[in-house]
Amino acid sequence: MAFEIHQLSLSRGHRRVLKNVTMALEPGEHVGVLGANGAGKSSLLAAMAGELNESVTGGEIRLESSNISQLSAHEQATRRAVLPQQPSLSFELSVREVVQMGAYPFLQAASDEVQAWSRQALLQTDLVAHEQSPYTALSGGEQQRVQLARVLVQCLAISHYQGQAYLLLDEPLSSLDPKHQFQFMQALAQLGQTQRMGVMLVLHDLNMAAQYCHRLVLLSKGEIIAQGAPRDVLTPVALKRAFDLDFTVVPHPLDDKRLLILT
Question: Domain range spanning residue 62?
């Protein structure tokens, strides 16, 4: 069972934004999606979230053998969680209330289960001290961490009821400081191991992608130009093609199993 894309083509208006994209996200796997602005990264994520079914011009997306276009919004929410680039919330809710919203697709969940999932998510996003605070009073980076905690609760609930979850994240690190970037990626790595949670992340930080992702997908103008292990994707030739910039790729000075990407 996996989250699979077969020969997906996608047009928005008169512009083709994805062309013949084929890839898969396996349980427990972390896949990083890389590329320049306009390469099709967010469109790929939105298509996997079932938001662009009418824009699909070819191919298909299957979530555990079911075509995504045939699943209701509720059915999708009980199998995968999604965090877009700029989630918004203007209601006067506490941090804890927002985080617990992640369990909404599972009305059968007991209160103590939701409390346990929320507590775990708050710990993993360093938000325990803020759980009673109004969400709207937080900084942008803190609000981002609250939204991350919310989708973690959803994934914990999905894992509990379905056995495995998939998490789609569009630039989840963009508002976080280095400490909380590291903490969140560590939390994802742990959940991948303990919950077999498949994670797909749109990232701009090439070094973070090289360190934490099992596989990378490099997009350029809506097409996959490289896909595979970080060492196979993060090459000067492929990066030049994707970003029109010269990169130097060397072994990390403290860990020869990792790469260091320099401009």
Answer: 3-262
